[in-house]
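To: structure desk
From: M.T.
Subject: fold request, one chain
Message: Could you run this one when you get a chance? Sequence is below, nothing fancy, just the single chain.
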Amino acid sequence: MSLQILELHRDIVRISGDDNRAFLQGQVTCDVDKITKTKAIRGALCNIKGRVIADFIALQHRNDIILQCDNGMGKTLHATLTKYAIFSKVSITLDTSMLAIGLISETGMELNNFRDSINLPGELLIEGDATFTENLVAIRIRGVLAREQLWLLDRSLPSEITKNLIHDQTDWSKQDILCGIAHINESISEQHTPQVLNYDLSHVVDFKKGCYTGQEVVARMHYRGTPKKRIFLLNSKAITGSKLLSSDGSEHKIIAKSFNESGGCFLAVLPINSEKNHTVFRLDDEYKSEAVIGNLSY
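Reply: Done. Structure tokens follow.
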């Protein structure tokens, strides 16, 4: 495959001010001290019951911390953080000046060559590595294929992007699914603990940092409990489907899905022993197509 350049629909929340790091450290699951201009980190915001409100990618820009979340979740993230910020010297704003672009390739070398063409040099080796200029940031993203995000801080598009831009993020979402990245949208906000979403396995939660909202519940589950459910990757020959059913008739929540003419893949919340018990799952398409549990890299 050749390099794909995809327009991504994302919201941006910017946290500014003298207390921005200390404030965020007490609110989110990731270790804010590890966020730099050249290192982005995935994290999440929980409610007091330990349910995930939103997930994000965090990066330092100048002296601010930028949180990129799923499209439509910016207002929720902004409102929740603002509620806790009244005693901190911070300013929390929805930033509409940025544009996110996704790059997908079979090789990291092709991504390096493309960034060179837009004067953004540097080799991004592992997830979260970042490089930047005044108005452009590139971040390495986990994927079955090589992936990076470009953040255009002033929304101006280089010609190398404009002439090849695909206004469809389906292939990007499929890569998220294949490597087990579950993004929070409005329909599942505050429904699941980080463990159900595999955030403890995919390093969205840092168990060595200090307290944050919901930390007591999340830590208790990690150290003293075992989750009864987790998200699993499933693959099917189905080209459509909205419900996942097991052989006993139980319906299971689909978190994210991607279908094309070759079949579908999706992330679903299943009982933890589903694979061990060889549970059979089927979609609600006209053929009642079987869905088979696949492997995740973590």
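Reply (cont.): Residues 228-293 form a domain with the Elongation Factor Tu (Ef-tu); domain 3 fold (CATH 2.40.30). Let me know if you need anything else for the meeting.
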